């Protein structure tokens, strides 16, 4: 029996970036058109009620690609998380990916992406997601850094509690993470809709239940150190950094609780707690030195979480030693 080819949808949310919004759309649409893939690749672009955008101008700009590109504007501003959440919920594709409005698809990347999706059919395995490293560039085109590259070669990540915590941080990339929208846990996303690290939360949940693939390819141009419109996360850069810092720790704590609820083995629980602490430590080492001493006001709940975590690790390790000694 011949199966229909798997479909792909690019979700492009936008806010206050009319020029790069069109550029992001065109970077994908031109490749769909050139490769004649309109029958299986679509683009949905949604502006989150930007005050400086005439959506009619955007629609006119991408008119040549209207067969496979849908552009609209929200009636009111939803915020980043809810806007993307609704786009994912509406997707009927086999896989979707979020392309932020200041990023672009690298030339000739779409062919490789489709080949990757097609290879999943051959294996007859449930892969919930796949992702690539994030190559970050300055606005002048200079390569700034490469992150979200946990392996030096293509690697399959098996589903499970420990891998969920071990690789969840790679979810924050947004651009470069592909996933099956039908497998997303919208209940947990809705409950934590205000968390700025919502991609970490839903990616960790996907890793609990489904395999993921790391593809060591440079498929996207991710622009950094440019103007960002994150006013709702704080009026100053320091306030926004503190918000991101707290939200990341909360996302890790939530994902750890989800993983621990599925395990009863002491050894694995200890490994999960250790991995949770590693996630905290990694973020603390990155963010705390930048924040001024007077503003290291990490919420009390998170300080209590870390203290509790250390106590549980100590207790579990002691219990584990007793089990080994006395059987």
From TrEMBL:
Highest taxon in the source lineage: Bacteria
This protein's UniProt keywords: Transferase
GO molecular function: transferase activity
Gene3D superfamilies, per database record: Spore Coat Polysaccharide Biosynthesis Protein SpsA, Chain A
CDD domains, per the entry: Glyco_tranf_GTA_type
Pfam families given in the database record: Glycos_transf_2
Boundaries of every Glycosyltransferase 2-like domain copy: 11-121
Protein name: Glycosyl transferase
């Amino acid at each position: 029996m011949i199966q229909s080819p798997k479909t792909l949808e690019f979700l492009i949310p936008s806010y206050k970036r009319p020029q790069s919004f069109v550029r992001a759309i065109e970077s994908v649409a031109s490749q769909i058109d050139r490769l004649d893939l309109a029958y299986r690749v679509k683009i949905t672009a949604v502006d989150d009620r930007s005050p400086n955008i005439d959506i009619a101008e955007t629609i006119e700009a991408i008119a040549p690609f209207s067969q496979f590109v849908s552009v609209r504007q929200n009636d009111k501003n939803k915020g980043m998380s809810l806007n993307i959440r609704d786009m994912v919920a509406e997707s009927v594709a086999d896989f979707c990916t979020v392309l932020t409005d200041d990023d672009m698809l690298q030339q000739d990347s779409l062919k490789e992406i489709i080949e990757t999706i097609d290879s999943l059919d051959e294996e007859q395995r449930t892969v919930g997601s796949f992702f690539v490293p994030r190559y970050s560039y300055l606005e002048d085109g200079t390569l700034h850094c490469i992150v979200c590259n946990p392996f030096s070669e293509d690697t399959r990540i098996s589903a499970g509690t420990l891998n969920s915590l071990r690789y969840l941080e790679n979810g924050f990339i947004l651009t470069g993470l592909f996933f099956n929208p039908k497998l997303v846990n919208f209940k947990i996303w809705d409950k934590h809709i205000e968390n700025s690290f919502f991609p970490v939360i839903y990616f960790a949940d996907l890793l609990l239940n489904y395999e993921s693939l790391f593809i060591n390819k440079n498929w996207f141009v991710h622009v950094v150190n440019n103007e960002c419109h994150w006013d709702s996360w704080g009026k100053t850069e320091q306030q926004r950094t503190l918000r991101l810092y707290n939200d990341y720790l909360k996302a890790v704590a939530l994902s750890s609780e989800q993983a621990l609820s599925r395990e009863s083995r002491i050894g694995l629980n200890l490994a999960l707690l250790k991995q949770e602490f590693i996630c905290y430590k990694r973020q603390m080492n990155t963010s705390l030195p930048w924040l001024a001493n007077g503003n290291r006001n990490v919420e009390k709940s998170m300080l209590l979480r870390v203290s509790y975590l250390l106590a549980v690790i100590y207790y579990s390790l002691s219990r584990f030693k007793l089990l080994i000694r006395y059987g």
